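Box 3.1 A note on notation
Throughout this textbook, protein chains are presented in two layers. The first layer is the amino acid sequence; the second is a token string describing backbone geometry. Keep the layers aligned when reading.
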Amino acid sequence: MTPEGAERLREELQYLWRKFRPEVVKALSAAAAEGDRSENAEYIYRKRQLAGIDRRIRYLSKRVDVMRIVDRPPANTSIIRFGAWVTLDELSEGHVDYRIVGVDETDAAKGFISIDSPVAKTLLGKTVGDSIEIDLPESLARFKVIAIHY
């Protein structure tokens, strides 16, 4: 995991645990005080919301405990590895930039792709000038690696 991704996970965990969960518990208590819980939509909603928050807290706690942070580039920066920013030239679409990150950091809008994705798996080990083919659901896409940086 990148240092930025690790920090985001820690921040989310702290937010859920220290701010959001107490707010939901307070709202749940207020809903429970309204009487019959079996027909109380607010109570049922808050109970489900709290269960979802607790699930996410458990997941994040486990991830934070076992995550490995990669905070420096590899010895050979001319090869695509974890954490690399990669600029590709697609013949029909132009340039696209991707960063290979951990599964918890994936964000398509930012160009962050999971190391487990087919695109990243195809890119790993490639160098500038290499051409790759990726079998996408719609078609076969061809790219050329233009730049790599960390």
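The chain has a mean pLDDT of 93. The chain has two domains: 3-66, 85-149.
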